[in-house]
Amino acid sequence: MLTIKDLHAGVEDKEILKGINLEVKPGEVHAIMGPNGSGKSTLASVIAGKEDFEITKGSINFEGEDLEEVSPEERAHKGIFLSFQYPVEIPGVSVTNFMKTAINESRKARGMDDMPANEMLKLIREKSELLDIDRKFLSRSLNEGFSGGEKKRNEIFQMAMLEPKLAILDETDSGLDIDALRIVANGVNKLKSKDNAVIVITHYQRLLEYIIPDFVHVIHDGKIVKSGTKELALELEDKGYDWLKKETVA
């Protein structure tokens, strides 16, 4: 589904990613870990097409298509979803209206008509029940006055509604207490299938107790320096990142 080869990317004159190689297949969950400033969020932004970052070398292919010239909107329509670490507030636009617009824009990009209102309401009802979301929540302005847990749950609701092929969760566990973390993780687990894939970016092993990864990759200084299974995340929890940094230097 996703193939990244020797990816170098940065912002202005600063190189952040220094040769990332990664392959993600349908049905897989990949966790990306690493210390602050290692390039985790930059990788997520570059896959999603954030225009602040420039690719200087290498390639990103999604379902066989080179993404370098593909806009963020087109990437979203092709099935790439990014859950933000810090979702923005949009006063005056309800969660429901935002979702209706997003879904219909994606349908339009695929040459389809708008989703009929009764189908849309049915979908909203099904997904909100799946994620235990109060219907009153859906009439509120997008992220305005939301707690950290509500913002993250709303991101997972968007993911449920859009049904992306590749979901990238950028530090979804950031700032969540254990109950909110469990709710968000349960939502992700309910949405996983053999046809989609998930990349989870996190600092902490605790999220991976709820979302079990098939692979764990550690980024340090813009490169993936070690890959493994969930046991690697447990090792990082126990030892921290210093041993990996020393290994890399050696």
TrEMBL record:
- Domain of life, per lineage: Bacteria
CDD domains, alphabetized: ABC_FeS_Assembly (cd03217)
Provide the ABC transporter domain boundaries: 2-246
Question: What are the record keywords, sorted?
Answer: ATP-binding, Nucleotide-binding
Supply one GO molecular-function term.
ATP hydrolysis activity
Signal sequence region: none
Q: Which InterPro entries match?
A: AAA+_ATPase, ABC_transporter-like_ATP-bd, FeS-cluster_ATPase_SufC, P-loop_NTPase
Pfam families attached to this UniProt entry: ABC_tran (PF00005)
Q: Which family does it belong to?
A: Belongs to the ABC transporter superfamily. Ycf16 family.
What name does UniProt use for this protein? Answer: Fe-S cluster assembly ATPase SufC
